[in-house]
Amino acid sequence: MSPMARTAPVPAATDPAIIRNFCIIAHIDHGKSTLADRMLQLTGVVQQRDMKAQYLDRMDIERERGITIKSQAVRIPWEVDGTAYCLNMIDTPGHVDFTYEVSRSLAACEGAILLVDAAQGIEAQTLANLYLAMENNLTIIPVLNKIDLPAAQPEKYAAELANLIGGKPEDVLMVSGKTGVGVEELLDQIVRELPAPKGDPNAPARAMIFDSVYDTYRGVVTYVRVVDGKLSPREKIQMMSTRATHELLEIGVSSPEPTPSKGLGVGEVGYLITGVKDVRQSKVGDTVTSLHKPATESLGGYQDPKPMVFSGLYPLDGTDYPVLRDALEKFTLNDAALVYEPETSAALGFGFRVGFLGLLHLEITRERLEREYNLDLISTAPNVEYEVTLEDKKVLQVTNPSEYPSGKIAEVREPMVSATILAPNEFVGAIMELCQSRRGILGGMDYLSEDRVEIRYRLPLAEIVFDFFDILKSKTRGYGSLDWKADGDQVADLVKVDILLQGEQVDAFSAITHRDKAYAYGVMMTGKLRELIPRQQFEVPIQAAIGARIIARESIRAIRKDVLAKCYGGDITRKRKLLEKQKEGKKRMKMVGRVEVPQEAFIAALSSDESSKDKSKK
Amino acid sequence: MPSALPLGDPAPADGVLPAQAAEGASSRKFSLYAHIPFCAVRCGYCDFNTYTATELGGGASQAAYAATAAHEVAFAARALEASGVPARPMDTVFFGGGTPTLLPAGDLTSILAAAVEQWGLADGAEVTTEANPDSVTRDSLQELADGGFTRVSFGMQSAVPHVLKVLDRTHEPARVPQAIEWAREAGLKVSVDLIYGTPGESEADWETSVRTALGYEPDHISAYALIIEEGTKLAGQIRRGLVPPIDDDDHATKYMLADELITAAGLGWYEVSNWARTPEDACQHNLAYWRGDDWWGIGPGAHSHVGGVRWWNVKHPTAYAQRLDRGESPAAGRETLDAQTREVERIMLTARLAEGIEVASLPPAGRSAVAGLIAQELVDVRLAFAGRLVLTLKGRLLADAVVRQLLAD
Predict the structure, then answer these.
(1) Contacts of A564 in chain B (CB under 8 A)
(2) B187: left (phi over 0), alpha (psi -120 to 50) or beta
(3) pLDDT at A485 exceeding the cut of 90
């Protein structure tokens, strides 16, 4: 058994030979944060009394959802055979939307722990990240976690992992982050198996940014992995993609609290503070070099984050618009992937069209906006970006159905994804049925083990951004997992379906759909609205239309009775309060022409789980 | 009255009212309401403040209730005097419940006598009691008439046994004409109360009930839509799916049917839910509520109104009796309405009456809503142009919507 390192190697003076850089690839809930916590504890980096569950996940929302959105790096000392080593653990985001961030974290490492729940086996996103790690030539240490669980099936899943990465099932380490079993052996294994980083200490400095985080007090904190040369405090640095220069106000390592150092040398991982206030000035994937002795070639692999999914965000209370605007502005300081621009909806008022990496990114952002800024928001149904070529050859990028041009369209292209779904083989039929119904093209299918299958489909992104994942989960009783990545675009036969209330178009309900699905959308939305909009004093026709052609219609019958028959033995106070409440309710109505539509109807009509919510209410 | 009391300001123990209560009081009429909080059984739809015989004791018991109520009459007279409100003879008196006739007729007449002793009765005053058809006899009705009652309102509800069963009403339908005949013999005016829209009631059932009631040739008919109140047995049965939910369209259809039949029988509507054979047969006490007159309500949970001050008594009969024993006001809370709120109430209440609202008396927003109300066929076009807003049949069914339009900000 290895003891805690007695003397930790000093930053800026550490021989690359004793450095080990690694990350943990794991699915949500597979216990990555618990294992990381246990490592911090065992190596004495965090004292027992300071320990709070999931130390590395900083945001409350991350802790509650048990997922890591932003990664971070921690320097850990560990002694093996009398030598004190320096381990840098680079935390990686665990979700499909953040694939690019994951790829940069992987690029900062020589090895990865493949951490899999011994009761559940590998999931699609983990598999995707594993492939990414293997492409980056990382050394993989397979680990099964939660072996203390009664439902654990270590033999079965060890065989599955061995099959995936090549090797023997007995080489798979068995640990429990919860009890600590096997964690010391894992630390030893990291030292023994992972290669030390290589780099030229005398070459011009090159460090890769794998994360940058905005901190209210310190500005942007940039996390880097030094590849060549050395970075020192007060030195002028340059970002190679933009040529912007900054002064290094502080440089240091996290252990896990930020600790300033005399610099960072080859193979080391740490943070930089330059005083910039916006993460866009410190882009993930960019290369940092020294201004006085600049490198000529960047480390490569840099790309700008590209929003894939768009949704309109509107404050329920119009007077909250400035609050939402300020909140979005603050969020972009810390989230280079978030883009937004103001938009106006006739039905919803003033709001923003916001671009996200994916649906989870959308959900988390919305939840944080509501929680941290005390906002009530309506988000319109998410959609993707279409490229519309008009007959006059003009090309439009459409992210909002209401901007979809009417007529004279030569061609529409929609973004595609390649999706990987992992599930027990008994669900193959259900999954394929789902994917086929979403215009998917089967790419292939492999057995991971005797009863687990990997299914690959090419699908239009638009088909998976709304309710695909929820349906997949329910069709596979929770066992199915999904990963996707952008995969070009395709020409598609798309139409815009409008919804009309009493002949008046309601922009918030317009959708761009495949021609074959326009009718289904029309029937679904008109039906939902018939349930959600209260009866008015006149009949209200609800129609779905493509251009001038009506494809579905419903109608809300006129209300016939709106009177309380009794006066309750002279309790006029009660009657008046009821009237006041009714009048208050009117104020929360949006007028669409003459039709009063409650805010709740917009929310419910635009959310995918409306039917289930409605059922539970009744 | 319903169980839940409103939230309001605290009411002082001496019952003295704010100054505005006395302003212009001599030009307003004065009424008395007496709440009798007892029932033989609690009906499944009822959330009124009422108790069965075995539930209460002490000053709140049925036996002691007449004396306790008389205490409040005396307290009321003192409090009004201390508030500078001149004593006025009672224009109307109404005994409601609960089931007032569950008390011996002598108890009811003694409560009435205590009030008459304090304030006297105006000429031609209307004195009504609610009654269950099976809690009266020929003798008890005669005793009520001899003691000063002029009118009895029977809770008939329905003529159809399976509907009465859902409502938990215990009387034999045949009991109703008998009771009405006795009341007539005693010289009392007769009203019957009907309820429509009970779960399981067909349109034919309702027509039977209305025709049966009209066959008794009452002076007055009230027809109330069944309201499912939270916390009642019926609300629970509907929630559990044992009884079908109520349907507003069904209510509308039945209201229109009732209006057609009742009007054809020669009665006329004077308030959304009330019809009378002649204007004199209209329930004057009910009108006092809608017109914003003064009344004192005695009894647990009873509501009162004097000159823009509204208050309500503590709900539980025991707490009520204890307060009076200590010489304290039984009021649980009250509110003093400002001029604007009184105006809102005036429009809200008088819009329901056949006498209607003078267009000239409306605030500007209300006046500008009139054209829309005419266009929607909610108010009578001819009368509106003559300067008076009176609901059409369609308007009566949408009276709350009309009020909201008249009061739109």
Answers:
(1) 227, 400
(2) left
(3) no
Q: Is the pLDDT of residue A306 over 70?
A: yes
Q: Nearest chain A Cα to B399, which residue?
A: A563
User: Do A440 and A459 touch, CB atoms closer than 8 A?
Assistant: yes
Q: CA geometry: angle at B258 spanning B256 and B260, to 5°?
A: 70
**Residue A49 CB: number of other CB atoms within 10 A?**
5
pLDDT band with cut points at 50, 70 and 90 for residue A4: low
For B19-290, the fitting CATH number among 1.10.630.10, 1.10.3720.10, 3.80.30.20, 3.30.70.20 is 3.80.30.20
> Which of A557, A570, A582 lies nearest to residue B404, judging by beta carbons?
A582
Q: Is B231 left (phi over 0), alpha (psi -120 to 50) or beta?
A: left
The predicted complex's ipTM stands at 0.89
What are the domain boundaries of chain B? Answer: 19-290, 338-409
Give A270's Cβ-side CA count (13 Å radius).
30
B319-351 b/e with 16+ CB inside 10 Å = b?
ebbbbbeeeebbbbbbbbbeeeeebbbbbbbbb
Q: What is the pTM of this model?
A: 0.68
C-beta atoms of A563 and B304 within 8 A: no
Nearest to B310 among A560, A572, A586 (CB): A572
Tens digits of residue pLDDT in A243-264: 899 999 999 998 878 889 999 9
Which of the residues A563, A566, A568, A581 would you substitute to probe the B interface, choosing the one with the greatest number of B C-beta atoms within 10 Å? Answer: A563
Q: pLDDT by residue (tens digit) across A187-200?
A: 999 999 999 999 99
Is residue B230 predicted with pLDDT exceeding 90?
no
pLDDT digits (tens, 9 = 90+) for B121-131: 999 999 999 99
Are the CB atoms for A253 and A304 separated by under 8 Å?
no
E strand or H helix at A414, and its extent?
strand A409-424
| Span A325-369, pLDDT tens digits | 999 988 887 787 889 999 988 778 899 999 998 888 888 898 889
Three-state secondary structure readout of A34-55: HHHHHHHHHCCCCCHHHCCCCC
- Degrees, nearest 5: CA angle A618-B4-B7: 115
Give the separation between CA A467 and CA A363, rounded to whole angstroms: 13
